[in-house]
Design goal:
Blueprint: E1 2-6, H1 11-22, E2 26-30, E3 44-46, H2 55-58, E4 63-66, H3 78-98, E5 103-109, H4 131-149, E6 154-160, E7 162-164, H5 177-187, E8 191-193, E9 199-200, E10 202-204, H6 205-214, E11 222-226, E12 232-233, H7 234-245, E13 252-254, H8 270-276, H9 284-294
Parallel strand pairs: 1-2, 1-4, 2-3, 4-5, 5-6, 6-11, 7-10, 8-13
Antiparallel strand pairs: 9-12
Helix pairs in contact: 1-6, 3-4, 5-7, 7-9
């Protein structure tokens, strides 16, 4: 199979590109500097924004895995957010279809649900709290309209929940709280908003890669959740990290300055199981233990 992976030097994209390469796929990876190096990667790496690619250089592809986006949830430039996350993404999908692509798997987000009651169900209570979530909801809707116009093309949006794992140490404040809290426990004290009872549906990045591969089996275009359906509180996360890291650090609780902060994320995973056959393999604790064994959990941030 010949695949184009955008955001291939980012967190999820780098894990996906390396897994496809390991499986013997012909991979064209779009990435940039100051992210993750694709060590021992036998595919082709092109360092360009995905809206500036030369299709004559890329040629025809079978599958597009679109992972690139502005993912900063506090980014305030609405025009830029919608240009990158929606307008150029749809243009990319259309160009890919022209170049023989028959399956498009792209990154959406559970940010589309905002603070609506959980568990989150696809097609219900989609009320994003920030422009990032709004951009992903609009992308979902436009992608499904594009799918209606191209019934022979399968387009699958994966609404990523809170993803953690190897390859996120370049993300700074956008890295998952599992990584950020681990670093705080190692060098200081863990710090969370009062009183650490907020919950997150945390999914290990290896399961997210699995979800992208499962999406290839979709019999129809769809948008599905990509989480575990089993949320954990920040207090629970800190307790597990303290145990795995061999520490006993006291938690500092601070006021929350963000009015658009999601207090509880939890995915209903029925549709993902029924439509693409995706069932996560890792529990939260198993994922953190594996993360630690890889050495990435304690690896310092890329400055």
């Amino acid at each position: 199979m010949r695949a184009l992976v955008t955001g291939a030097t980012g967190f999820i994209g780098s894990n996906l590109a390396k897994e496809l390469d390991k499986k013997g796929w012909e991979v064209i990876a779009l990435g940039k500097d100051n992210e993750q190096p694709l060590n021992n990667f036998s595919g082709k790496l092109i360092k360009k924004p995905f809206h500036e690619i030369d299709w004559n250089e890329i040629g025809n592809i079978d599958i597009l895995f679109h992972q690139a986006a502005i993912v900063n949830t506090v980014f305030n430039d609405e025009k830029e957010m919608f240009f990158v996350n929606v307008e150029t993404a749809i243009k990319l999908f259309k160009r890919a279809i022209i170049h023989d692509c028959n399956k498009i798997i792209y990154a959406s987000s559970t940010a589309v649900y905002g603070n609506t009651p959980s568990p989150f169900v696809e097609g219900k209570s989609e009320e994003p709290l920030n422009i990032y979530g709004k951009s992903k909801l609009l992308l979902d809707r436009m992608a499904m309209k594009l799918a209606e116009k191209n019934p022979d093309i399968k387009i699958v949006g994966l609404r990523y929940c809170n993803v953690f794992g190897p390859g996120e140490n370049h993300k700074g404040k956008m890295a998952n709280m599992v990584y950020q809290l681990a670093q705080q426990i190692l060098y200081d004290k863990p710090e969370v908003f009062k009183y650490g009872e907020q919950k997150r549906d945390e999914i290990y990045v290896k399961d997210v890669v699995k979800a992208n591969l499962c999406a290839l089996n979709a019999k129809e275009s769809c948008v599905v959740n990509c989480g575990t359906g089993k949320p954990v509180s920040f207090n629970e996360i800190i307790a597990i990290l303290n145990e795995i890291l061999g520490k006993n650090k006291e938690t500092i609780y601070i006021d929350n300055p963000y009015p658009f902060f999601q207090t509880h994320t939890e995915c209903d995973m029925k549709k993902a199981k029924e439509t693409i056959g995706f069932v996560p393999e890792y529990s939260f604790e198993e994922g953190v233990k594996d993360y630690y064994k890889t050495g990435w959990l304690t690896k310092p941030p890329i400055k």
